[in-house]
Specification:
Layout: H1 2-18, E1 23-29, E2 32-36, E3 43-48, E4 54-58, E5 68-69, E6 72-73, E7 76-79, E8 86-89, E9 96-99, E10 103-104, E11 107-110, E12 117-121, E13 138-140, E14 144-147, E15 154-158, E16 160-162, E17 166-169, E18 176-180, E19 195-197, E20 201-204, E21 210-219, E22 223-226, E23 232-241, E24 245-248, E25 255-270, E26 277-281, E27 284-291, E28 298-302, E29 305-312, E30 319-323, E31 326-333, E32 340-344, E33 347-354, E34 361-364, E35 371-378, E36 382-385
This protein binds calcium ion (3 copies).
């Protein structure tokens, strides 16, 4: 039995060495481009030919094995006058894919199983794995959809414009989804560099320990992050959702850090169970709704403004810290467990704080006084000046 398995592995080993980076089938059908990888680890770039056409290049992988394009090792597929849609299915293997320097109708990229890497739009300047062509902004006239499938996927968008909506679903396992502005400017004011989705941007990090990093992202409608399971780490800097922002974490220990975030309508953050940490800095929401779920949670809001905040700290030993916030109407509910409500340098029209069961504390600092028009404390056993 053992020799049988050993022989089979040996034969597969030879096969893999010969065809390690596999073959990618590329074809043009009408206006559209179809790219299909095989079960091996393919490395390709899909980009402009610089002359109104499209080009797909194969590259050697990290083990110097060439990726064939339609049977030619490190070959190239070119097609003139391209402005249609791009459909990419990479299948199994650890694929490395880049889509850049194009204006397309719609784009759909399915990375399949394996630990895949995807770069959309601009790439970091020091990357050489896709050759030395200059990557630039990607424009999509309709929808951009990305599926990571199983495996630890690394999905990076940089300087991308989508006139429709976009779904980024990284599937199971430990994925990293990164949305960054162009190298020229790290802010929303950089209209050429930022990520701009005119409809709704939905990010689904799937099961596993996932990281979502976003900077300079603007959505014409909603920004949605909906994690299925496993701890979520989300760092969101300088985003503007012209609709609402919905951030749903998992029953594990999640961390959500927002700096300079803006949601015109509702910003809703639900972290479910686990010991979660949520921090909002320099942020505005038309309506702020935070539910920390059960577990020992920490919530901090600083320099944050909203007409109305509804906060649920859930069961457990929770801490809510407010610094220099401006809230017209605040409701915060501690639920059972020993909770602390720490409020400093804040302007609040009406603050309603419910301790519920447990020995709860309302903390203030005379050196950082608040202006609270109407303070209502319920089931809070202790008021403390720190
Ligand atoms: Ca593949
Ligand atoms: Ca794959
Ligand atoms: Ca995945």
């Amino acid at each position: 039995m053992r020799t049988h398995i050993a022989r089979r592995l040996f034969v597969e080993g030879l096969e893999n060495r010969r065809l390690l980076a596999g073959d990618v089938t590329v074809s043009r059908s009408g206006a559209d481009l179809f790219v299909t990888g095989d079960g091996l680890s393919n490395t390709i770039s899909i980009e402009s030919d610089g002359n109104g056409g499209v080009r797909v290049n194969g590259f050697s992988d990290a083990l110097a094995q060439p990726t064939s394009i339609n049977g030619t090792p490190n070959g190239s597929f070119e097609s003139a006058n391209f402005s249609g849609s791009v459909f990419v299915v990479m299948n199994g293997g650890d694929d490395e894919v880049r889509l850049t320097r194009l204006q397309v109708q719609a784009a759909s990229i399915n990375l399949g199983e394996g630990n895949d890497d995807l770069v959309v739009g601009l790439q970091a300047a020091n990357e050489t794995r896709f050759g030395d062509s200059v990557p630039v902004r990607l424009s999509v006239a309709q929808n951009l959809n990305i599926f990571g499938g199983g495996g630890d996927d690394d999905i990076r968008l940089q300087s991308v414009y989508v006139a429709g909506s976009s779904v980024i679903d990284s599937g199971a396992d430990n994925d990293s989804i990164t949305l960054l502005p162009g190298v020229s400017g790290p802010t929303l004011a950089d209209t050429a560099g930022r990520i701009n989705v005119n409809g709704t941007l939905t990010i689904v990090p799937g099961n596993g320990a996932d990281q979502v990093t976003a900077q300079a992202v603007i959505t014409g409608n909603n920004l949605v992050i909906d994690d299925a399971g496993g701890p979520l780490q989300a760092n969101l800097t300088s985003f503007f959702a012209k609709g609402s922002a919905f951030i749903y974490a998992s029953p594990q220990n999640d961390q959500i850090i927002i700096k300079d975030g803006r949601a015109a309508a509702l910003m809703q953050i639900i972290t479910e169970g686990g010991d979660d940490h949520v921090a909002l800095h320099d942020t505005y929401a038309g309506n702020l709704n935070i539910n920390m779920g059960d577990g020992n949670d920490r919530l901090s809001l600083s320099n944050t403004r909203t007409p109305r905040a509804d906060i649920q700290l859930g069961i457990g030993t929770d801490r809510m810290a407010l610094r220099q916030v401006n809230i017209d109407t605040l409701f915060a509910f501690g639920n059972s467990g020993v909770d602390a409500f720490d409020v400093r340098s804040s302007v609040i029209g009406q603050a309603n704080l419910f301790g519920d069961s447990g020995y709860d504390t309302f903390q203030t600092d005379p050196l950082a006084p608040n202006s609270i028009g109407d303070l209502n404390l319920y089931s809070i056993e202790r008021q403390q000046q720190v």
